[in-house]
Every structure is written in C-alpha cells, then in structure tokens.
Amino acid sequence: MTTRLSVQGITHRYGKKTALNDISFSLQKGTFCALLGPNGAGKSTLFSILTRLFVPDTGEIEVDGHSLSRKPGEALARIGVVFQQPTLDLDLTVVRNLKYFAALHGLAGKEADRRIAASLDRVQMAERAGEKVRALNGGHRRRMEIARALIHGPAVLLLDEPTVGLDAATRRSITDHVHDLANEQDLTVLWATHLVDEVRDNDHLVVLHRGEICAEGSAAGIAGQSSLHESFLELTGGSQ
Amino acid sequence: MKAALVCLVAIVHREALRFVSQRGRFLAAIVRPLVWLIVFAAGFRAALGLSIQPPYQTYITYEIYIVPGLCGMIQLFSGMQSSLSLVYDREMGSMRLLLTSPIPRWWLLFCKLFASTTISIFQVYTFLAIAAVTGITFSPAGYLAILPALILNGLMLGALGLLLSSTINQLENFAGVMNFVIFPMFFLSTALYPLWKMAEASTILRDICAFNPFSHGVELIRFALYGQVDWMALLWVLLAFAIFLFGSLWGYDPSRGIVRRKA
C-alpha cells in the first residue's frame, strides 16, 4: 500500500487554547477518509495546516512522500483543495477561473486547456465553460471547484465541508461523485464534514472532537451495532 | 522558471481584468489628480511662488511642479487599492487559493506587487496624456525616463500596501488605515510643496517630509522627468521598498506572520 497522506503528531495552539492536540493518521492510495467532527472540533484548523496556510507548533505532514515543511512546493503540487468558503472570481468565466488556477500551478497553453477540458468533463460541466461564475448555482460552483482542484492531477484531494449550503439532492450528488473519484481514479480524499449521512460504511473515518482524535477506523467498525449517528453523538458528547 | 513566469502573467492578467471591470476605480484614479491639477494648482499658482531649484533650471508654473506629485499620488492610491483588494481577497477566500499554490510564496506576493505596479503605471501615463492635452507637457525623453522611477515607486508603495494588508483583520478596518496612511503620506511630502517651502512653516514638518519615503518617490519621478537621477531619493526608495517587502513577507509567512492567526 502507498501512503499518500501522513499526518504525525500535529499540535497547534491559538494563544493558550489548544486547537489540535497530537493529531496523527495516515491515508493510503484510493482511500476516502471522512474527517467527522462537530463545529469547532478543529477541522478547518487542520485543513489550514494541511494546505500550509500556517504551520503547526509541532508535528510533520507528508504528501505523497514529500514533507510539507521541508519541501512545501512539491507537497502542495500534489494537493487539490476545495475550501469551505468559495474561492471563485464571480465576474470571470468558468474557464478563465480555471486557467488562473492552472497558472498558479505553472500550467499554461494547450496543456492547461487539455487539463481544464478533462476536468470539466469529469464533473459534467463542459457546456458551462464559457459562463460567468455568477450565473452558476451553488451546486455547479462546487462542482467547478472540484474540477479546479483536479486540474494539476493531485494525489490527495482535500475538501473542507464542501456541501455546506447545498440542497439535499446536490449534496448527495457531490458526495457520490467524490466517492467515485476515490474508487475509480485511486485518488486519496480527505473530506471534512459534520454531517454523518455523508459517510459510507466502507469509508475510513477519523472522528475529531475538541482538537483530538476520539475514534479512527472504518465507519462500519466505529458505528458497531448502533448507527453511525448515535456512535458519533456518543463519542462527541452530543447525546448528553 | 517557466512556472514562475506563467504565474506572473496570470496574476497580472487577472488584476488587469479586475481593473478594467471596475470602471469607477479607473475614472476615480484619473479624475482625482486632474482635479488637483486643474482646480487646486490653478488656485495656488498665484499664491505660491517657487524658486529655481533642481531639477528645474528656470522658473516653472505650479502646475509643472505638482505633476510628479500627482503621478506619485496615483501610485499611492493604486498601492492602497491593491492592498484593499488583498484584504477583500482574504475575506472572500480567494487569497487562500493563491497562498496554497506550489510556487514560492515570496514570488506570488511579488507577482501581486508587480501587477498593481503595472496598473498604476498605466494610470499615470493616462493622466500624463490628459495633462498634455491641457497644455502641460514634458520632453518625450522625460516621459520615457520616468518609467523606471514609476516602477520603483509603484513597487515601494505596493509593498507598503501589502504590508498593511497583512496586518489588517477585517475590511472595515481598512478605511481607518487609508486615512492614517494616504493623507499623511501625501500631504507630508514634497508632492504639493518643496521642502524649503515647508521649512518656512515649520522645521519639524520639513523633517517629517524629508523622512517620508513618498517624498523620495516623488523626487525620483520629478528628476527622471528631466532625465536626471536623484541618487539620494533612489537610495531611500530602494531602502523603503526592501523594508516594506521584508515586512510583508514576514506578515504572510505561514510560520511567523500575522496571517497565521486568521488565514
């Protein structure tokens, strides 16, 4: 098995408050991992650290064998990110947004065009390429952000609560699509969410609560005899 | 190397598209100095006597004196506008996209700086063209010679904007910074009055003006318009650029800067 994402001993504090405490887990090639935690669990902080928006107080992250602290360029080149907050330029067309992102990864010309077309095809948005982002609905914007995150052919796809604000049908469609990506293209996915229904039984699951991992394993294993929803509430004290 | 250039072109292109789509911003950038040139300078021409001082070799009108200061003003506003857009980008999330690129962060920030400088230079030449139509002209060589001065001044002011953007938490806080940075920098400089004139009012004011890096940016442009180099101004501008750039790189450093707390 090939380790695509290795997170070892990550601790991070905001002043005196510990946001993440000794977080460690590893993800293999083609794994869909749900990072499940209630609001304030530290998911977004972990994503900021995984994308090197800031560095942790202690710990080490490796992406496809490249250390994020020692070789940030190589590591970041292997990560695709969909942030919780949309990061699209609304007044530019879909394709112009994607070209800008491709350029941030050093891709231009025909190579960029080819990859953009393939990415849009993958999310069934090829016919929307010339539209301004402002004209797209929330679901299409999210799909477009997923297409964008795949342009440079990352080994690891990080999605921070990507279904926030979407209706149930669109949520399901996007969740299914990213599961398919992991299965069919051997993409390693880390999907942060607080919604239990986005997790499938065979997903790898990391439950984060108050900055600590309180359970890790297969979703079915963690759920045990009860439902995952009940197990999650029990683990995070939500049932009390 | 190719990736860095691709990135530079893309960032400049994006900023240019954004600038073109904001017609009000362009109009304001041009009208503001023209109002100063046509209204303010016309009123002051009679009141303000200017002695012969380098780089001028003869008596000049106040309109001629004020043009380099207004070029500087365009770049000052442009630099601050650019930092405002950085704060906006950060609040809207698109800054994250930039900062998670595998291209070195210092280069990404330099690309942003270069883009804002390019746009400010375009504005300056548009302003100079309109000024020429109203009869305020310089030698063709002067128009060409100010280009390096405009690049340096634009980079310095852009770096200051970048530094400010790294220290600002929210967009709302920016208005205060604009007032506390733009107006003091502009009025306490040689943009509107020469140093000796300021000294007549107060030596402290004169000293503040002499210390203000914006004064040196303006003087660099003023001398360049006449094909000369004000070496002291050049040194000051380079020094200020280095300090502002270092500060902004520190501010955007993921392990040390202020962005760590709020990215």
What descriptive keywords fit this protein?
heterodimer; A: 240 residues; alpha/beta; Rossmann fold; 6-stranded mixed β-sheet; 4-stranded antiparallel β-sheet; 8 helices; B: 263 residues; mainly alpha; globular
Strand-helix topology:
The complex is a heterodimer of chains A (240) and B (263).
Chain A (H helix, E strand, L loop, with lengths): L2 E12 L2 E12 L3 E5 L6 H8 L7 E6 L2 E2 L4 H6 L1 E4 L11 H11 L4 H14 L15 H13 L5 E5 L7 H18 L2 E6 L10 E6 L2 E7 H5 L4 H8 L5
Parallel strand pairs in A: 3-8, 3-9, 6-7, 7-8
Antiparallel strand pairs in A: 1-2, 1-4, 4-5, 9-10
Helix pairs in contact in A: 4-5
Chain B lengths: L1 H20 L1 H25 L14 H31 L1 H6 L5 H29 L6 H28 L6 H14 L7 H7 L1 H9 L1 H13 L5 H21 L12
Helix pairs in contact in B: 1-5, 2-3, 2-5, 3-5, 3-6, 3-7, 3-10, 5-6, 6-10, 6-11, 8-9, 10-11
Helix content of chain B: over 70%
Instruction: Report on the biggest sheet of chain B.
Output: none
The whole-angstrom Rg of chain B is: 19 Å
Secondary-structure element sequence of chain A? EEEHEEHEHHHEHEEEHH
Q: Figure out the total of helices of chain B.
A: 11
Overall SS class of chain A: alpha/beta
Q: Count of helices of chain A?
A: 8
Strands of chain B, count? 0
Shape of chain A: globular
The total tally of domains of chain B equals: 1
Contiguous low-pLDDT stretches of chain A (5 residues minimum) are: none
Looking at this structure, what is the CATH superfamily of the domain at 1-72 and 190-240 in chain A? P-loop containing nucleotide triphosphate hydrolases
First-to-last CA distance of chain A = 40 Å
Alpha carbon gap, first and last residue of chain B = 28 Å
- Shape-level CATH architecture of the domain at 1-72 and 190-240 in chain A: 3-Layer(aba) Sandwich
> Residue share in helices of chain A?
25-40%
Percentage of residues in strands of chain B = under 5%
